[in-house]
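Entry:
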Amino acid sequence: MDRNMTAGEGRNMTAAGEGPMSAASTHAVGAWTVRPLDGDTWDAFAELVERNGGVFGGCWCMGHHRTPDGISFHAVPGIDKRAAKEELVRQGKAHAAVVFDEHGLAQGWAKFGRLDELPLLAQHRRAYEKDDPVLPDWRIPCFYTDTRHRRDGIARAALGGALDMIAQSGGGTVESIPELVSGRTAHGRFLFSASVELFEDHGFTKVRRLGKWAWLVRRVVEPGATAGRAASAGSGADSQEGRR
């Protein structure tokens, strides 16, 4: 079976994967406020990306999405990634928990989505597919934090917000591939998927190692409204921030 197929193609959809994303409430985590990426927050999200040079050489957080032809947007020559991202957002096909400061400026995010929305693995695909994994309902594949605010708790707030939004949208099995940082020097600017330790703080369990430091982690999120807030409020700073 193609591990990059949509959830609907690969298995029967669970309740978590049916219907549109439900409206997610804004909530505060310390000095930060977390809001869903949608038409109302698009301009703030876009300003953050442009403030940081398009993010990772102009990525616009388009990794893990695929075109109608089934390929990565990054493989399409000359594509306007900003316009493509905005179109997905306004169609309700691209999601993130966006973290705002007290001035209303976006300072970071955690991208999340159902498997059919984020079917592509940017890294560790061969190792992931090796043991014929059970496909999840949701993925949280990457994080980004403004370069001036790393280690300020933004990734922690974003992850908690993403889990709350997933819970409000029906819950289900959530996976990610973060990196273990304990016992080594790990630079936050390279941790696109944040740290294993941060995910463990939010109730995730290590499933298996996919790389030297990379681990597949999973958690089942029950339907509800506060799946990530307790862990998000538990610390003002992250062990390592994520970036993409």
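The mean pLDDT is 80.
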